[in-house]
UniProtKB/TrEMBL annotation, chain A:
Keyword Lipoprotein set for record: yes
Protein name: Predicted lipoprotein
Gene3D superfamilies associated with the record: Envelope glycoprotein gp160, DUF2291, alpha/beta domain (2.40.50.420), Envelope glycoprotein gp160, DUF2291, helical domain (1.10.10.1260)
Keywords: Lipoprotein, Signal
Classification via InterPro entries: TM0957-like_sf, UCP033535_lipo
Organism: Sulfitobacter marinus
Lineage: Bacteria, Pseudomonadati, Pseudomonadota, Alphaproteobacteria, Rhodobacterales
Pfam family, one: DUF2291
Automatic annotation (TrEMBL), chain B:
UniProt superkingdom: Bacteria
Main location: other
Protein name: Erythritol-binding protein
A single GO cellular-component term on record: cell envelope
One Pfam family here: Peripla_BP_4
The family this protein is said to belong to: Belongs to the bacterial solute-binding protein 2 family.
Keywords assigned by UniProt, alphabetized: Signal
Signal peptide, first to last residue: 1-26
Keyword Signal: yes
Species: Sulfitobacter marinus
Alphabetized GO MF terms: carbohydrate binding
Compartmental location: Cell envelope
Signal as UniProt keyword: yes
Amino acid sequence: MRPTLQISVFLLSSLVALGGCKIVKNADPAEAGQAEEAQTDQARMAALAREIWEPQVLPAVADLLAPLADVRAALAQDVDAAGAKYGYKPVGEASAWNFGVTGTGVIVETKMKSRAAKLQVDTVGDGKPDVTIQLGPIIRGTALRDAMSFLSFTDFRDQIEFAKLAGGLNAMAHENLMIPTEDPIGKTVSFAGIYTFKDVESRPEIVPTTLTFGAP
Amino acid sequence: MNTNRRVFVSGLAAAVTLASTSIVRAQGKGLIAIITPSHDNPFFKAEAVGAEARAQELGYETIVLVHDDDPNKQSELFDTAIARGADAIVLDNAGADATVAVVKRALDAGIPSFLIDREIKESGIAISQIVSNNYQGAQLGAEEFVTIMGEEGNYVELLGREADTNAGIRSSGYHDIIDQYPDLVMVAQQSANWSQTEAFEKMESILQANPDIKGVICGNDTMAMGAWAALEAAGRNEVIVVGFDGSNDVRDSILAGGIKATVLQPAYRQAQIAVEQADQYIQTGSTGLQEKQLMDCVLINSDNAADLETFALSS
């Protein structure tokens, strides 16, 4: 990870040099290393999240996506079989399955003014919400991180660093959403995103990677 | 890796030689050393009891040792385990930095270590590091705290021991939630070093300086117990206290309407899993799993406190 970060620091400084059309001393790799050390965990992990978002995270999300109704039907039969077929979970006895789902529904409740803005969506047509879509900027949980098979806790210094990576990925999800300025209650929404499975009764709390709003 | 394997095999051979001369190795599977902080904190006792029970079920002899959070003592205990020819060490360690060297020393002597509860700062020297998902747990506790606080009011945070990664990660999990609510104001933040008596004293002085507090969020249950005792003594039973660990003491307080919530770390099961992975490794030379593993925590409040016993929830 460190070499990649250093390379990006180097590229960035080269770009600045070109853009400004004046001669700027290339970053000394040792100095770049020190600058990296000085960064907070949060800043380093936010940078890593940004770096892997398009080339690695979005393709991995796309690989996991399946219709929500199919995933739910499979979960109702057998959780681990559904997980093996549709989901991913990090190593460890108590870790939960994470699923990538797509769906469409009617927005029946909204909480737009909160820092943790959310939509409650009815995808089965009974007028009652059956999924929650997290809009952020505060997005709960570590679903995005934990759905990525290429991210392993063993590769990170400790839980703090690993937690900041989850926060960085959630921030990337929020940044890439087109959130309507008017309250979208009553409209339809199509979504794709990741959630961490709790149990069959709990409403999935989806971290969306795409959202499209339509007329009621 | 190859070298280590060879050392490990020769270590095993030595242990077998020892075993043939001692009668106590009932089923001949070997010896597991279980090293934790002091059993004064029931959390660590639950770990030791859970590990010991599982090791004996699997046919191992056990030695149970405590390091009292003293890295020097921990180092001596590792020497003891090495001298006794232990086949594996299950460890809740005495410091993320200080422990790296002793785990390495055991590995060089052919003894694999399986860590629980607390991480160390390096990967690749312990065989497993199984830790509670403290960040996830802290977020659960913080969400409950915010809800009971009604999203507003002055509050205090009692932090754990600074050298312990878990103190930092829990505080970070708390603030990643609480700081999103501008009407929740932290008026004091102090370390009480995981200690009940220290939490009692800190809470007393914080109360004098800040009588207008509505809640206290604590990095563990022993500090929550200390804070609650100080609040009760000052006639401030209305203050909302939230802890972390899931101890029987806090369970009883929740059921009696005192402390409002805590977060269960599955300490008993975690210790058992470490022993199971040690067994797998001793038998096959591999756990088949990645080194670092997170176990999710569970929110405990008045809804489910009655189902909690010795750091495990009955379903």
